[in-house]
Write a structure and sequence with these properties.
The protein has 301 residues and is α/β, with parallel strands linked by helices. It has ten helices and 13 strands. Bound molecules: zinc ion (ZN). The site of zinc ion (ZN) has 7 residues, from loops.
Length: 301
């Protein structure tokens, strides 16, 4: 039994009530089938040329939601890429899965929900890329379902470190949240976040998680990707984490990607500007609410 499940009659009623909420999570965050959304060709070509031309230092491009393309010198890493989410995104990604596939070296996955470990994107990357998939054990069923062969999988375990393509990665614990910031009934202790050591910089991708001491204990975060949604750090916990970590570059994610309605706003609606206005001036200067496809450059000193 996990530590989150309630006991007693009141708790049972509470759990039943929450169970209906969790069905919403399962439906909303898991993938579906349909037609593939294509990226704008000219914009995509410009971005691909920019990625190809990046050979020095660290650069990141947001592709929507928790999807980042991160290039350090010659290695291109994706986190939770959703580049072929059929008919679900409110706007197409800046590049398609087909376009990025030949350049991608590593596809990092944080957990098994369809807006993070995306089936259509993964199936394209499997065919058109030689990338390795880094994923937690909680994603192995989906990996099998998508047809990823064992030799292309590196399994990450929370609180353990490993190396991939010459890059040191610390896997973070992640505990999935839900409406009202409560821990998700089906939260899986095997889910991960990641800290990537790139050159002399670090990039922290916490995945989907309520705020944990694990996050606050991370040392020297240069680039922080964080999710100011109701089921993640929202506003208060985002401010706590940012003030504790004092990153050089602060980039909100999990926002402005899926159409928002009353049922799904706990995971589709981010509050980046509300976080920013609560920060001291010095940290506000490091805060960037980027457009999709926009490059964030970090020099190695
Ligand atoms: Zn999510």
């Amino acid at each position: 039994m996990t530590g989150y499940r309630c006991r007693g009659s009141v708790a049972v009623a509470f759990a039943i009530n929450l169970a209906s909420v969790f069905v919403v999570v399962a439906q909303e965050e898991r993938g579906s089938v349909g037609s593939i959304v294509s990226a704008d060709t000219a914009r995509a070509e410009a971005m691909l040329a920019e990625i190809r031309g990046h050979t020095n230092g660290l650069a990141l491009w947001w592709t929507g939601h928790n999807g980042w393309l991160i290039k350090s010198d010659g290695v291109l890493i994706g986190t939770d890429l959703v580049l072929a989410d059929p008919g679900r995104r409110k706007n197409p990604p800046p590049v398609s899965a087909e376009q990025i596939a030949p350049m991608l070296n590593v596809s990092l996955i944080t957990h098994g929900h369809g807006d993070h470990f995306n089936g259509p994107t993964t199936r394209i990357l499997l065919r058109k890329s030689k990338c390795v998939f880094v994923l937690p054990t909680s994603c192995l069923d989906e990996a099998k379902q998508f047809g990823i062969p064992a030799e292309r999988i590196v399994v990450a375990h929370p609180r353990e470190s490993f190396e991939i393509q010459g890059i040191k990665v610390d896997a973070l614990r992640a505990i999935h949240g839900n409406k009202r910031g409560a821990v998700y009934f089906d939260a899986n202790l095997e889910d991960c976040g990641y800290v990537l050591h790139l050159g002399n910089k670090t990039v922290m991708q916490p995945g989907d998680s309520v705020l944990l001491e694990d996050h606050l204990f991370v040392k020297h975060v240069n680039v922080l990707l964080f999710s100011p949604t109701e089921h993640n750090w929202l506003i208060e916990d985002s401010v706590t984490a940012i003030q504790s970590l004092e990153p050089d570059v602060i980039l909100p994610q999990h926002r402005d990607t899926y159409p928002t309605n009353e049922q799904n706003r706990f995971w589709t609606k981010g509050f980046p500007f509300e976080v920013k206005e609560r920060l001291p001036k010095e940290l506000q200067k490091r805060f960037r609410v980027v457009e999709m496809g926009e490059r964030v450059f970090v020099a190695y000193q």
